[in-house]
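STRUCTURE:
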């Protein structure tokens, strides 16, 4: 199988990807995030923001053409749409509460989500209000490799 290299897998890769996927493994997450990055930049015309993705929290952060922050949650699962977003102790992924909670952690030097770049993003989210930050779900079905985008808010 050839590597994705940030591109949406082609027909030649589909069977190899499907046969190698174990639900919930790191490889599966990597594929979902690579596909999401391609979709975010090529289809949605978003620009990547300097962001150090933590183990938990936002998958990626972009800016739209107007310079506003856009949080992208990437999913590579058979669950589709909003059902693919996990419920956390701080609200469902993509919710205002969840965005604000993660932004606060990104600003906290004692948090594993803190880095200087993340703190800048977190501070901006808190300044403009989590309710004013767009969240987009980019979902890829591992069985079909079809990708859909959905604006959560």
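SEQUENCE:
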């Amino acid at each position: 199988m050839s590597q994705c290299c940030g591109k949406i897998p082609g027909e030649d890769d589909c069977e190899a990807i499907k046969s190698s996927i174990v639900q919930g493994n790191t490889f599966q997450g990597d594929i979902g995030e690579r596909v999401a990055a391609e979709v975010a930049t090529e289809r949605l015309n978003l620009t990547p923001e300097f962001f150090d993705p933590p183990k938990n929290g936002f998958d990626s952060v972009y800016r739209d053409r107007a310079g506003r922050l856009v949080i992208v949650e990437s999913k590579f699962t058979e669950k589709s749409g909003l059902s693919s977003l996990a419920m956390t102790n701080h609200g469902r992924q993509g919710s205002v509460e969840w965005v604000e909670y993660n932004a606060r952690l990104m600003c906290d030097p004692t948090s594993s989500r803190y880095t200087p770049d993340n703190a800048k993003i977190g501070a901006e989210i808190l300044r403009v209000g989590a309710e004013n930050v767009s969240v987009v779900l980019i979902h890829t079905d591992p069985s079909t490799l079809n990708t859909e985008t959905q604006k959560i808010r």
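REMARK: The chain has one domain: 11-151.
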